[in-house]
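Figure 6 in text form: structure in, sequence out.
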């Protein structure tokens, strides 16, 4: 076990030493923040104020910001595991695998070192972004959360980190060059905001597109986080009007349906747990083939 821990620590040091790699792992979250800070945020606030004239500008902005930051932390949980796998790609491209193969390190320990480091990186980065998000919402919008809400959000984020780190490890296990990895990271970082329903509210999209997005785990993983983070601000903005709350939840992807089926939080936990197990096994098998 000490060998696995040492390998994981080595991978963590290499990842955090590469500042550009850390930056690109947060690219989707940064894009979302800049889009809403510079462009989309004011439009959302103005549109909601027209529909809820009794709500104050602070309440409306509080809702938009909590929804935005829920998307940011959700995206971070997805993308940072992919960023952590840059160490695996560099080891493969540089020929370090050959050094590992002639050492007394067991292949199982080497595989676990890569997989665990991806999950740990995702947890660390997501924790930092969550803390920054909560601080921003409190200092700028005056929005605070109870300890139970924060714990619930972090629990869902932790499961998301593990699930998408496993998925990223499996995807990257087929990548053989740093150029291909950079292209994959760029593509994922660009389109993920759309797939997670964060750049544009999913309810504003055509029904067919919205249905496809709601069926994807990227979107589903964000639902419980949005529910917890927007609960208070949504109620304040709507004055507790349940009909308005239900409509806005569907529009902003706080709830999701696929056909007549409503995506439940229980299902979200199940699919994330299943992804963790399935893609961890598949990634382990593929990585073993690569280093054999």
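Output sequence:
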């Amino acid at each position: 076990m000490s060998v696995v821990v040492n390998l994981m620590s080595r991978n963590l040091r290499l990842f955090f030493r590469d500042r550009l790699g850390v930056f690109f792992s947060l690219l989707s979250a940064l894009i979302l923040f800049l889009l809403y800070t510079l462009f989309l945020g004011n439009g959302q606030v103005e549109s909601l104020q027209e529909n809820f004239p009794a709500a104050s500008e602070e309440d409306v902005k509080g809702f938009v910001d909590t929804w935005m930051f829920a998307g940011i932390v959700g995206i971070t949980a997805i993308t940072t595991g992919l960023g952590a796998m840059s160490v695996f790609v560099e080891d493969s491209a540089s020929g370090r695998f050959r050094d590992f193969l002639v050492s007394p390190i067991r292949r199982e320990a080497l595989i676990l070192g890569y997989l665990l480091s991806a999950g740990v990186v995702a947890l660390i980065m997501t924790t930092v972004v969550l803390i920054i998000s909560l601080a921003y919402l409190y200092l700028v919008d005056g929005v605070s959360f109870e300890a139970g809400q924060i714990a619930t959000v972090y629990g869902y984020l932790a499961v998301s980190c593990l699930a998408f780190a496993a998925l990223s490890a499996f995807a990257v296990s087929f990548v053989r060059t740093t150029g291909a990895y950079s292209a994959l990271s760029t593509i994922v970082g660009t389109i993920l905001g759309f797939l997670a329903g964060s750049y544009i509210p999913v309810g504003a999209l055509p029904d067919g597109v919205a249905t496809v997005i709601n069926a994807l785990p990227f979107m589903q993983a964000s639902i419980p986080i949005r529910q917890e983070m927007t609960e208070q601000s949504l109620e304040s903005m709507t004055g507790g009007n349940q009909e308005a709350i239900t409509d806005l939840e569907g529009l902003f992807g706080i709830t999701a349906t696929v056909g007549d089926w409503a995506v439940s939080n229980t299902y979200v936990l199940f699919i994330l747990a299943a992804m963790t197990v399935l893609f961890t096994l598949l990634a382990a098998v593929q990585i073993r083939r690569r280093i054999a």
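Caption detail: The mean pLDDT is 88.
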